[in-house]
Amino acid sequence: MARYAVYRVTRPDSTEHDWAIRQTDEGGLEIREGKPGSKLRATLVPAPLCTPDAKSELASRVIAKSQRGYVRIGSGEIGNSGILQLEPLSDGEVPEPGLPDAALYWEFREPVDPGAFQESLVWIHQQLTDASLPGLTLEMTDAGQTLSLGWEGKQWSIGGGPFAGVNRVLQATGRGSGHVSHTDLPWPVLVLFALARRHPDAKLGLADDDGIPVEPIVNRSHPWLISQTHTAWVEVRRAAESLQLVMPLMKLGTEDTGFSAFF
C-alpha cells in the first residue's frame, strides 16, 4: 500500500480534517483528505504540474497547509478502501533532516519586493563580511543581484540573476524558491533565516524532504545548523548575531553591551 505523510487541523468548531500527501512513482503527487476515519478523497498532481519537481511541490504545499494550522501527526498507508491506517508520531519524537543528500526547501509564499530583497542581500553580504568567519568567502555577482557564498570547496548562491541557479527570486514577480543540500550547512541556512526575518510579509516558508516545516530558530541543537564538517558553534553563533537572528551574549562588567542595537 502507498505510504503518506499525514497532517491534521482542528477547526474552531472542534471538527478535525486530515490531509495526507506522497510522491508517486511517476514523479507527481497524490493527496488524500477528509474527516479522520472516513474514506479520504484523492487528488492527483501529475509530474508536469510539479514546479520545479515533486519534492519542491510537496514542500510548497506542506508549507501552505502549516500556515493554515495543519500539524504533522504521523505517517500512514491507504488501501483500496480509502481508509487511512495511521501510525502516529511517538511521544517526544523529533523529525530528523533525513539522509546526507536531503534538502531544505524554501519558498516565498507571497511576492517579495525585488528592490528590498536585493538590499537585504547586500546587507547580509556586509554583515557576514564584517563577522570575519574563517574560510567563508562572499561575493555579490550578477551586477549586485546575487549573493554567492563559498567555503571548503562548496558554493551556494541566491538572488535575482542567472548565477543564483535554483535559488532564484524573479525580478518581475517577486516570487522565488530553491533548496539547500544537507551537505551544505550551515551558512546558507542562516542566510534564509535572515531573509525570513527581514521580509515577514513575503512569508518565507521552509520544509525538509518529508515536507516537515522547519522553524527559523537558531540554537545549537537545530538539525539544519549542525554542519557535517563540524563548523564550530561559536562561529555559527557569531554569524547569527551579525545577522540579528540572536541577541549578542552579554559581557558582564562592560559599559556598552550593544543590547539596544537590536531594538
Tell me about this structure.
- The chain has 263 residues and is of the alpha+beta class.
- It has two domains: 2-88, q64v53_bacfr protein fold; 103-242, no CATH class.
- 20% of the residues lie in helices and 29% in strands.
- It contains four helices and 13 strands.
- The chain has helices spanning 54-66, 114-131, 187-198, 233-242, and strands at residues 2-10, 16-23, 29-34, 41-45, 71-78, 84-88, 103-108, 137-141, 146-151, 154-159, 168-169, 176-181, 204-207.
- The chain has a six-stranded antiparallel β-sheet, covered by helices on one side. A four-stranded antiparallel β-sheet has the order 11-12-7-13, with helices on both faces. A three-stranded antiparallel β-sheet has the order 8-9-10, with helices on one face.
- Strand 3 (29-34) and strand 4 (41-45) form a beta hairpin.
- Helix 2 crosses helix 3 (187-198).
- It is elongated and about 60 Å long.
- 34% of the residues are buried.
Quick structural summary:
The chain has 263 residues and is of the alpha+beta class. The protein has helices spanning 54-66, 114-131, 187-198, 233-242, and strands at 2-10, 16-23, 29-34, 41-45, 71-78, 84-88, 103-108, 137-141, 146-151, 154-159, 168-169, 176-181, 204-207.
Order of helices and strands: EEEEHEEEHEEEEEHEH
Strands of the widest sheet, in order across it, are 4-3-2-1-5-6
Mean pLDDT: 83
Overall shape: it is elongated
Helix content percent band: 10-25%
Q: Report the strand count.
A: 13
The largest pleated sheet is described as: 6 strands, antiparallel
Proportion of beta-strand residues? 25-35%
Structural class: alpha+beta
What's the gyration radius in Å? Answer: 20 Å
Uncertain segments = 94-101, 251-263
